[in-house]
Amino acid sequence: MIPRIIVTGAALASLLGVAALAHSGATGVVKDRMEAMKEMQEAVKSVAPMMSGTAAYDADAVRRAADTFRQHSGTALTESFPEGSTDAPSEALPTIWRDWDRFEDLAETLGVMADGLSRAAENGLHSDGGMMNGGAMMNGGAMMGGGSMMGDSSSMGSDMMMGNARGIMQMSAEQIGQMPADGAFAMTTQVCSACHDRFRKDDD
Known about the structure:
Cyt_c/b562
C-alpha cells in the first residue's frame, strides 16, 4: 500500500511563486512556454486550497486542473524547448539539453500524473475518507520513504529533486487514480518541482 504524500506550504509557495515571472520582452517559443507554465501554475493555485482543506472540495475543478497539466505535458512540453532557447526572460537552464532524456521523462510523467489526478478527482480527500487500493485507507508517513513535496534530507525529495523519480515514474495513471485526490495532486506537483529544481534558474 502506498502511504499518503504530504503537500507542504513551502512546496506550494515555490511552485506558485513562479507565476510571478516577468513575461515582459518574451517572444516566440519562450513567450508561449512561459504562458503554458503560467496556466499550470494557475491550475495549482485553483485547487491548492481544496487540498489543504481551506476551501470546499470540487471534483470538477480538480479535473479541470488535471486537464491543464495534461495539455502541457509530454511532447507539448518538450517541443516548447528547442535547443538553445535560453534568451531572457527565459529561466531555462542549458542543463535541459545536456540531460534531455531526463527532461523528456519528466514531461511524460507529468502526463501520467495528470491522467491519474483526473481519475482520482472522484475519490475526495484523504482527510475526508478518500480511499485507495480498492478501499484501503492511506496511512501516515510520506510517499516512498518520507518527506514533503519539495523533499528534505530524509525524503524521496532529494532523489526527486535530482530527477531520480523512478518510483513515481513507474506508477500508472490507474494506480494513481486509486488514491485520494490530495495524494494524486501532490505527486503531480512533485514532478513540477523536480523539473523546476533541475532545469530552471534559481530565483534571486
